[in-house]
Structure formats: structure tokens, C-alpha cells
Amino acid sequence: MDVFESVRVSAIIPTINEEKTIGDVIRGLKKIPGIEIIVVDTNSTDKTREISSSLGAIVIEEPRRGYGRAYLTGLSRATGDVIVCMDGDGTYPVDVVPALIDLLIKEDVDFISCDRMTLRTEHNYTRLHFIGNSILNIAIRILFGVSVKDSQSGMWIFKSSLLRKIHGLSEGMSFSEEIKVEAAKHGLIIEVPIRYGVRVTKPKLNTWKDGFSNLFRLFIKRVNP
Questions:
Q1: What distance in Å separates the CA atoms of residue 19 and residue 164, rounded to the nearest whole number?
Q2: Which residue(s) pair with 59 in the sheet?
Q3: In the chain, which ranges are E strands?
Q4: What whole-number distance in Å separates Cα of residue 39 and Cα of residue 173?
């Protein structure tokens, strides 16, 4: 039986000024039957919201800034049995989502995180980012006993039932690493290598500031889980 005949899927996409790429992301996701697409927009000044709405996405305006804040807002509205989370900048491969959902259900996995490290190149992931990510991966292994290859990946597919067990997630950039730690604590998490694309929009990440902030948040979470 086709897995999509029995499973409802919700996709959550946080956006800010993604008019160049959001259309392709939504069109790719709409190939999944009955998918609910939720775009959480944080004060875009371009046509991101208009494009998203015209393609049938539910658009939520979230004036409060924060990567995690956008996801928390979107997750509170999602109705699917399976949740797909990914950026709207076109760097993550939408075409692999159906296969990952199929894997999640048939292998009875709770959380799939997409690993950019295994197939990375200097064109799509810089050495500085690789080193920073690796340091954070080591910190997670030492502090929580969780081994991941790409703790900072922003593409995940997971069962919505896992959300009831997860708590204490940051409203900032560290949301990405923290949701993986929580998923490993409460369910079965695996990583699947993907090919990360080249960004065509302005990056939202502040490499040094967000890197140190994410490391600090790991220590805070360890002390106050």
C-alpha cells in the first residue's frame, strides 16, 4: 500500500525574503498527495508571502524573530502525522522527501535528520562551517551521548507523535541541534546523507556569533534539560 494513502504530511518552512526560491520548494513538496504546507514568514520585505499563498501554502506571519520561534509557531499549527521541516532557500533537496517519509514509516523510525557532511563539497559547505559543525557534534556526543554527523542540519522528517515528548527547545538557531538531542532522547533517530545545494539568497547565519551561541546553549541544556 502507498504510504501516503494512510499518512498525512505537514511541511513547515520558515522564511525571510525567499522570493527567488520559495516557489520551487513549494511546488516540489506539492508532489506529495494531500500535503499541508505551512510557511512561517518573519517580516519578509519581498514577495515571499504572496508567492507562497498563490501556490496554496498556509502563510503565517510571525513578527517575532528567531529560527526556533518560527518553527515552534509552525509546529503548533501542523496537523500531519509526519512533519517535514526544511528551509525555503532551495539548498535542501525537495525531491528526496517522499523517499525519506517512506523510510520513516516502513522502518519505524521516529526522526530522520539529513546529513550534509558526508557528500559536502567546498562549493556548497565551507571548511569553516565544517569545522564549526564538527566541534558542535563533538560537544553533543560528550554532553549527551548522542552521535551525529551534522548537528546543524536544517532538514528533518519526523513523526508528529514525537512532539509530545520533546520540550525545552530554543527560539534561536540552536533549535536545530536541540531537536536532534531531544529526538535521540525520546525516540529512534537516524541520519541520511543528502546533497546540499548552493545558496542563491543572502545567508541568515552569523557564523561566529551563532556558532558560539549554539555551543553555549548545549551547556545550558545539559545543566537545565
A1: 33
A2: 39
A3: 9-15, 36-41, 58-61, 82-85, 111-115, 156-159, 189-193
A4: 18
59 alpha carbon, distance to own chain's centre: 17
| 135-184: pLDDT as tens digits | 999 999 999 999 999 999 999 999 999 999 998 899 999 999 999 999 99
* Tens digit of each residue's pLDDT (9 = 90 or more) over 45-100: 999 999 999 999 999 999 998 999 999 999 999 999 999 999 999 999 999 999 99
Q: Which of 81, 207, 187, 56 is nearest to 132 (CA)?
A: 207
In angstroms, rounded to a whole number, what is the distance separating the alpha carbons of residues 38 and 73?
10
- What is the Cα–Cα distance from 44 to 61, expressed in whole angstroms? 9
* Count of Cβ atoms closer than 10 Å to residue 206 Cβ: 11
Q: How far is CA 182 from the centre of its chain?
A: 14
Domains and CATH numbers, the chain: 3-223 (3.90.550.10)
Q: Which residues pair with 36 in a beta bridge?
A: 10
Residue 119 is classified by DSSP as T
Nearest to 189 by CA among 146, 160, 134: 146
The sign of the torsion formed by the CA atoms of 64, 17, 151, 167 equals positive
